[in-house]
Write a structure and sequence with these properties.
With 478 residues, the chain is mainly alpha-helical. The chain has one domain. Helices cover 66% and strands 4% of the residues. It has helices spanning 3-8, 37-54, 56-59, 64-84, 88-122, 124-134, 139-153, 159-173, 178-197, 204-211, 224-238, 260-281, 285-305, 336-341, 345-376, 380-390, 396-404, 412-425, 434-442, 449-453, 456-474, and strands spanning 17-19, 25-27, 254-257, 316-320, 323-328. A three-stranded mixed β-sheet has the order 3-5-4, with helices on one face. The chain has a two-stranded antiparallel sheet with strand order 1-2. β4 and β5 form a beta hairpin. α9 packs antiparallel against α11 (224-238). The radius of gyration is 24 Å and the shape is globular. The two termini are 33 Å apart.
């Protein structure tokens, strides 16, 4: 493993404050353990945990398991050392600081995924699939439609969720053209990473920057055109390899549950509450999302209590996207807690392990050396570009969490550059982003690491093109 990439994955030092004997708050600096046996042991545990997580496809061991266990071991080792020296409270406060950062991320993603699972239960995504399959588009048209929809939807919905949705469409339409499946999947992964980069609602790394109030919500949209360029450059080249012809048309009746459109409206209201609550009231984004979860629970309670009382809606056929659609009044209603249980817990727990390990490693004392190298010996621009390239190997959310807590003194333009490079840099390899890893698991045999890697030169061209466009359009922010 590249030493620089390893160092980049070990970067978090929380600001520690403890009370003295008089009850006053005083800043406390943790001792440097970088050349202590505790530091070496922590590094060893971290490396083993990351290797085990990256070998998920070979070992069939879920990536969250070694990360959660590894984070527990590292913190126990550190806390034992501090307890022996009468400073157990210092280590405990460091752990709590990391835990709070993770909880904010967890609550935000949890509510978003619950809404998505509820809409899936409504049948809205199945309706979109049937619509695309019934319109008799050519393979080249489907290449652009699936990529374009992925780019747009990833701004408000988890990029991994959008990838899997579009992947299911590609699997059906391309069952007679395996080459189209591989090509379209690469395009979808690039579109998902690009679309989620300029919106905190769709990408984890961008969400981290927003949560820290480093950039306002509106500032991220300065990256919209650079991200669009990042998606279009490889897509324009790849389209020439899309096969000719059309897939077999599919016609079906789609069932939508009563309340579907109102649930979609509630999701929009939740996003508005989240953004406005942060901008106007300076509340953390998780506060608005949890308010939206409460609205969803109350509305589903209403649907359950009124089930069967509006007979005129049950079984009515109506037009949606020119499809024959049936609206049903399901007496079982929705189950919010079942939809919460269906979220991708493996990914959420992986983030827990990664964030806690990064916090532990940096608390040991590895932050200063790496920060001095990246932002002391290198220019901020070169450092941000290098960090973005490293996200092809290390999850971009993990890297962003690490860099944020290095507290580099950057201009708004440089923070936007870091957000851009980390967000789209994961498209270089299939393992560099959540959408790519998710697609590898879902499209086994059809979308592969080598199949994605053959397009890396073109994706790299899009990476640097987006950086050039960012400097051109947003130069005043540097």
């Amino acid at each position: 493993m590249n030493p620089l990439l390893l160092a980049l994955s070990l970067l978090f030092v929380p600001s520690l404050v403890i009370a003295d004997a008089g009850g006053n708050l005083t800043a406390t600096v943790s001792p440097d353990l970088t050349h202590h046996v505790i530091g070496y042991l922590s590094i060893a545990i971290t490396v083993v945990a990351y290797i085990a997580a990256m070998s998920e496809d070979v070992t069939e061991l879920r990536k969250s398991k070694p990360m959660v266990f590894g984070s527990a071991l590292v913190w126990f080792v550190i806390c034992c050392y501090y307890a022996q020296h009468g400073q157990a409270k210092m280590a405990a406060l460091a752990f709590e600081s990391n835990l709070l950062a993770y909880i904010e991320l967890l609550l935000f993603i949890l509510v978003s995924m619950t809404y998505i699972n509820t809409m899936e239960e409504c049948g809205i995504f199945r309706t979109l699939q049937i619509y695309l399959l019934s319109r008799r588009y050519t393979y080249k048209q489907l290449f652009w439609i699936t990529g374009g929809l992925t780019f747009l939807l990833s701004t408000v919905i988890s990029s991994m969720t959008v990838c899997l949705l579009m992947g299911s469409i590609v699997m059906v339409v391309g069952k007679r053209e395996p080459k189209f499946i591989s090509l379209a999947c690469v395009n979808i992964v690039c579109a998902a990473n690009a679309g989620s980069t300029f919106s905190p609602l769709g990408g984890v790394s961008t969400l981290f920057v927003w949560q820290r109030n480093i950039l306002s919500f509106g500032q991220f949209f300065l990256l919209a055109i650079p991200c669009l360029v990042n998606y279009l450059v490889p897509a324009v080249v790849m389209q020439f390899w899309a096969p000719n012809g059309k897939p077999v048309s599919v016609k079906d009746v789609v069932l939508l549950k009563r309340g579907t459109w109102r649930i979609i409206a509630l999701f929009i209201v939740t996003l508005v509450l989240t953004v406005s609550g942060n901008v106007v009231l300076e509340l953390p984004p998780a506060a608005g999302m949890m308010a939206g979860l409460g609205l969803l629970q109350l509305f589903i309670y209403y649907l359950i209590k009124t089930s069967g009382t509006r007979k005129e809606e049950s079984g009515d056929a109506y037009s949606f996207f020119k499809l024959k659609t049936l609206r049903i009044d399901d007496p079982q209603g929705f189950d919010v807690f079942r939809n919460i249980g269906r979220v991708n817990w493996d990914t959420l727990l992986f983030f827990y392990g990664a964030m806690m390990i990064i916090g532990a490693m940096s608390f040991v004392g590895y932050l200063d050396a790496v920060a001095q190298f990246l932002f002391g010996q290198m220019s901020p621009t070169m450092a941000n570009i290098a960090i973005g390239l490293s996200s092809a190997f290390i999850d971009n959310g993990t890297l962003m969490f690490a860099v944020l807590n290095m507290h580099p003194n950057l201009s708004s333009g440089q923070w936007l550059l870091l957000t851009l490079t980390l967000g789209v840099g994961g498209s270089l390899l299939a393992i560099g982003s959540g959408p790519g890893v998710g697609m590898l698991g879902y499209m086994k045999g059809n979308y592969t690491f080598t199949g994605h890697m053959r397009w890396m030169p073109i994706i790299l061209l899009g990476y640097f093109a987006s950086i050039v466009v960012h400097f051109w359009l947003n130069g005043e922010y540097f």
